[in-house]
Amino acid sequence: MGCAYFRSMDEKPDDITGLSRKDVRLIRRSWKLIQNKSLLIPTGAELFVRLFSAYPEMMDYFQTFNLRESPAETNQKLSEHALTFMNGINLYVTYIDDPELWVALLHKVAISHLERLVTTKDMERMASFFVKTLRSQLGSSFSVESERAWDRFFYFVNTIYAQVELQINGIIRKRSTQTISTKTSSRTVAP
Questions:
Q1: Of the candidates 55, 72, 75, 174, which lies 20 to 30 Å from 190 by C-alpha distance?
Q2: 143 domain residue, yes or no
Q3: For residues 24 and 10, what is the distance between their CA atoms, to the nearest angstrom?
Q4: 183 vs 176: CA distance, rounded Å
């Protein structure tokens, strides 16, 4: 009976993140493989190449590098952004056990990206390609269970992103409505 209790605790999802202890172990294990094999930049670069191949319009978000002019293999700016992105994922993995801090990090990243007009849909696309890229880089070391854990990881990330996007859009709509009503009331002439 004790063994079943620990197994169920191991698989019980966190109330905030939805990740179980087992998910966290699988995520950290696969992340450690990426780090140990010095695959941070290659994985990040492959992710962006895959993403831009499928959604070329997303390249418009990146003014600092242009894969149309310089191939990915020799594009220094792509490598720099790949490392920045992977370091961001590293922070998420590091603080996966501290949901409040992780949410705060996610809010900061969401605001930064929403200022650049990156939508929740764009982030969902990126997440999908990230998991595919992990599978490509890690091969048989990346189990189906690990893939599912990463899917849950990004479900949480994108849920927070979507919440921030809704909050910002609500503020914009409210300000817009206030501006319109102010302009309308200033044009109203009393009888």
A1: 174
A2: yes
A3: 10
A4: 11
Domain enclosing residue 70, as ranges: 19-187
Which of 81, 14, 77 is CA-nearest to residue 47? 81
Write out pLDDT tens, residues 42-70: 999 999 999 999 999 998 888 777 777 77
Read off the tokens for 152: 């849950």
Gap between the Cα atoms of 88 and 94, Å rounded? 10
Residue 150 lies inside a defined structural domain of this protein: yes
The Cα–Cα gap between 65 and 47 comes to: 15
Which residue in this structure is represented by tokens 């969902």? 124
Pairwise CA distance, residues 50 & 17, whole Å: 27
CB 49 within 8 A of CB 81: no
Please tell me the total count of domains within the chain: 1
C-alpha span between 146 and 23 (Å, rounded): 7
| Residue 159 belongs to a domain | yes
CA 109 to chain centre: 9
Distance CA 48, CA 31 (A): 18
Provide the token pair at 37.
């094999």
Which pLDDT tens digit goes with each residue over 70-99?
Answer: 777 778 888 999 999 999 999 999 999 999
Q: What is the pLDDT of residue 65?
A: 75
> Is 125 inside any structural domain?
yes
